[in-house]
């Protein structure tokens, strides 16, 4: 089954949204297969956002990502990467539809509360970076109701 890496950023954690965001993925039918609170190092965050290292906002973004704990999650399920991105909404919250996570809880592109993997390949890289010990394998009884 497909896996995606979802992470509440420090603003999301500070604003008390861990439960709210986790619940959205649970209720959608995704299975939580790893989770933890973390204070990542600058080096770790630079690996996570390596593809953005030449952007002008990069230093400020890394600083913001180190301003408090992040809440790291891996969810498994049908089309998890694409669906996770759709649930987050556009990168700029002002362009995010109401009903999406960013469209409901954020205003500024540099404070958009939540990260989601943008491809299956990047999801697997991010899961390996944030959860080097791997994720859990288990069955939920509701899977028979969620999948046809
Ligand atoms: P993530 O899920 O966090 O990876 O966001 P994304 O995939 O929607 O966007 P992208 O990977 O291109 O950018 C990563 C993060 O950098 C965004 O979520 C923003 O917080 C920040 N960012 C992107 N573009 C801008 C910008 O123009 N200005 C500022 N200040 N931050 C930006
Ligand atoms: Mg991204």
From TrEMBL:
BP-aspect Gene Ontology terms: CTP biosynthetic process; GTP biosynthetic process; UTP biosynthetic process
Active site: 115
Database matches in Pfam families: NDK
Residues that bind ATP: 9, 57, 85, 91, 102, 112
EC number(s) recorded for this UniProt protein: 2.7.4.6
Top EC class of this enzyme: transferase
Domain Nucleoside diphosphate kinase-like: 1-138
Keyword Transferase: yes
Keyword tRNA-binding set for record: no
Annotated catalysed reactions: a 2'-deoxyribonucleoside 5'-diphosphate + ATP = a 2'-deoxyribonucleoside 5'-triphosphate + ADP
Cofactor(s) the protein needs: Mg(2+)
GO molecular function, one term: ATP binding
Keywords: ATP-binding, Kinase, Nucleotide-binding, Transferase
SMART domains documented for this protein: NDK
Family (UniProt): Belongs to the NDK family.
Name of the featured protein: Nucleoside diphosphate kinase
Organism: Paxillus involutus (Brown roll-rim)
